[in-house]
Design a protein that fits this description.
239 residues, five-stranded parallel β-sheet, 7 helices
Length: 239
């Protein structure tokens, strides 16, 4: 990770953003702030980006200038190279806590008030379909992961994600992750394909990390054909 290594070892930091050799930011407690971390030049930023992507078993170059992948520790890295990135290589790393927050933690920290928490818990146990809406970095994935801890131990959970980042707290879980096309532009498996496949895997609960495309239709069909109790995230400003 080059100059970013100390930042990635700091448990307080949730996100690392590199806009240029001398323009590095971190997110702490939900707020972005600049740090003194520096690269030698844009070439150094690019070398670091290539190493990070390689750690994911992927490659990034002029032919494939945009990559979104999962690092070995579960963090998500997004890299964009010129000419897509106008002013030089860009790196964004979304980190996840080593210890996942459970439902009780969210109540204790004030994310959910007790009355709302009881309501949500009753909805989950009653197998209502739940869609968690919110903007970027508002805690949708954290809440979704905590909700999986409320599921019955005997229920089989199948998760579908574009980039696997959900910490599932249910004991019986099968995780599916989308695959981008290879350098020849072939072999892609998108979220919609995985949702359809998940329905053939005998799920008691279907959990989708983020609904943002054609998989919305398949999820709605599943909810209305026996797969009640499904959980999913969506980017939205409100209900």
């Amino acid at each position: 990770a080059g100059p970013l290594a100390p930042l990635l070892m700091d448990p307080r930091i949730g996100e690392v953003v590199v806009n240029g050799p001398t323009d590095v930011w971190v997110e702490v407690d939900g707020r972005l702030r600049p740090v003194e971390t520096r690269f030698r030049d844009s070439t150094d930023v690019r070398r670091t980006a290539v190493r990070l992507v390689a750690a994911c078993g992927r490659r990034i170059d002029d032919a494939t200038p945009l990559v979104d992948a999962r690092l070995p520790d579960g963090s998500r890295v997004n890299v964009v190279l010129p000419p897509i990135a106008v002013d030089g290589p860009l790196i964004t790393i979304r980190r996840f806590g080593a210890v996942p927050l459970d439902f009780a933690d969210l109540i204790e920290r004030g994310t959910l008030d007790p009355d709302l928490a009881r309501c949500v818990e009753e909805l989950v146990r009653a197998r209502r379909n739940l869609l968690i809406s919110g903007g970027t970095a508002t805690g949708k994935t954290t809440l979704l992961g905590a909700l999986t801890g409320l599921l019955d131990e005997g229920e089989r959970v199948v998760t579908v994600e574009d980039a696997a980042e959900l910490v599932v707290q249910a004991p019986h879980c099968a995780r599916l992750e989308a695959r981008p096309p290879n350098v020849e532009g072939r072999g892609a498996i998108d979220v919609r394909h995985l949702v359809r496949n998940a329905l053939r895997m005998r799920p008691d609960r279907l959990v989708i990390g983020e609904v943002r495309g054609g998989e919305a239709l398949d999820l709605l069909l599943a909810m209305n054909t026996g797969h009640d109790g499904s959980l999913a995230n969506i980017h939205a400003n409100g209900p």
